[in-house]
């Protein structure tokens, strides 16, 4: 994962999860439901991104490579 | 590594500031401290804000969503903007203030240190809120318009409550928008920095 993905992700998770925890939200059940949703959706997005990168890397034929370049 | 190669890999701050090995100067630290203070102030001041106090975020977003979806939104005092036909409320919680704060910090941390000269850093610093605001309005418009579209279409995700699906949509749109904002800004910054 490169810096262009990591920095926005770190700031996003910091503001949506870490700041509320520092403000005492950790004692509320609603916060942990929200945190679980954020983590699950973020993990799904990252998995998609990694999958797309893998498809791009493993595109072997020129036609595959062109498809990956144009559409992924 | 000769002097010319060193200059290319670690550009010197010609405005006189000392550049540390990591490429972060005292000017960067000062500007980022101001940015973090601004972000903390925004979070603190608007934590319990009503629709009128967040009008600078809610109103343009509601107008844009109305234009995109064709669904009229009516202002209701202290509540927000209501699409009466769909029973959808663009409330203070939907203002995108968190996204604005996240965009401010991401752009500040990511790009202020990239400028070798102090004048560049300051120009970057003062334009960041403009880009963050524009990105917030765009992301929020997409998020609310998508929510309106899903509501109209009656889409329901199996085993997920409508509220959870709405929040998940928010995470997808905000995170994707943040990555797009970062990549677009990086492309723009590459053109103006040596």
What does this structure look like?
The complex is a heterodimer of chains A (72) and B (194). Chain A has 72 residues and is mainly α. Helix content of chain A is 83%, strand content 0%. Chain A contains 3 helices and no strands. Chain A starts with a helix and ends with a helix. Chain B is built from 6 helices and 3 strands. In chain B, α5 (118-153) runs antiparallel to α6. Chains A and B meet through α1 and α2 of A and α4 and α6 of B.
What is the approximate shape of chain A? elongated
What percent of residues of chain B are in strands?
A: 5-15%
State the major sheet of chain A: none
**Classification by helices and strands of chain B:** mainly alpha
Structural class of chain A: mainly alpha
End-to-end distance of chain B: 20 Å
Written as H for each helix and E for each strand, in order along the chain, the element string of chain B is HHHEEEHHH
Give the beta-strand count of chain B: 3
Q: Tell me the span between the first and last alpha carbons of chain A.
A: 16 Å
Low-confidence stretches of chain B: 1-21
Which regions of chain A contain 5 or more consecutive residues with pLDDT less than 50? none
Mean model confidence by pLDDT of chain B: 86
Overall mean pLDDT of chain A stands at 85
Shape of chain B: elongated
Number of helices of chain B: 6
Tell me the Rg of chain B in angstroms. 21 Å
Query: What's the multimeric state?
Result: heterodimer
Could you estimate the helical fraction of the residues of chain A in percent?
A: over 70%
Overall helicity of chain B: 55-70%
Task: Supply the number of helical segments of chain A.
Answer: 3
């Amino acid at each position: 994962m490169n810096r262009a993905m990591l920095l926005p992700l770190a700031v996003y998770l910091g503001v949506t999860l870490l700041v509320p925890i520092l403000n005492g939200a950790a004692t509320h059940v609603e916060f942990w439901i929200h945190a679980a949703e954020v983590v699950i959706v973020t993990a799904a997005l990252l998995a998609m991104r990694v999958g797309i990168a893998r498809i791009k890397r493993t595109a072997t034929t020129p036609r595959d490579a062109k498809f990956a370049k144009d559409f992924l | 590594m000769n002097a010319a190669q060193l200059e290319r890999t670690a550009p010197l701050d010609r405005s006189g500031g000392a550049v540390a090995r990591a490429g972060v100067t005292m000017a960067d630290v000062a500007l980022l401290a101001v940015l973090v203070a601004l972000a903390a102030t925004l979070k603190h001041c608007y934590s319990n804000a009503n629709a009128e106090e967040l009008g600078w975020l809610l109103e343009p977003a509601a107008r844009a969503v109305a234009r995109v979806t064709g669904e009229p939104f009516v202002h209701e005092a202290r509540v927000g903007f209501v699409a009466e036909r769909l029973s959808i409320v663009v409330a203070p919680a939907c203002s995108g203030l968190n996204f604005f704060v996240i965009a401010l910090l991401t752009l500040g941390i990511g790009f202020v240190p990239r400028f070798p000269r102090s004048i560049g850093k300051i120009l970057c610093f003062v334009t960041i809120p403009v880009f963050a605001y524009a990105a917030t309005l765009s992301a929020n418009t997409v998020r609310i318009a998508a929510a309106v579209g899903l509501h109209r279409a009656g889409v329901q995700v199996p085993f997920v409550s409508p509220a959870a699906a709405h929040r998940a949509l928010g995470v997808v749109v905000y995170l994707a928008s943040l990555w797009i904002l970062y990549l677009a800004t990086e492309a723009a910054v590459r053109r103006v920095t040596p």
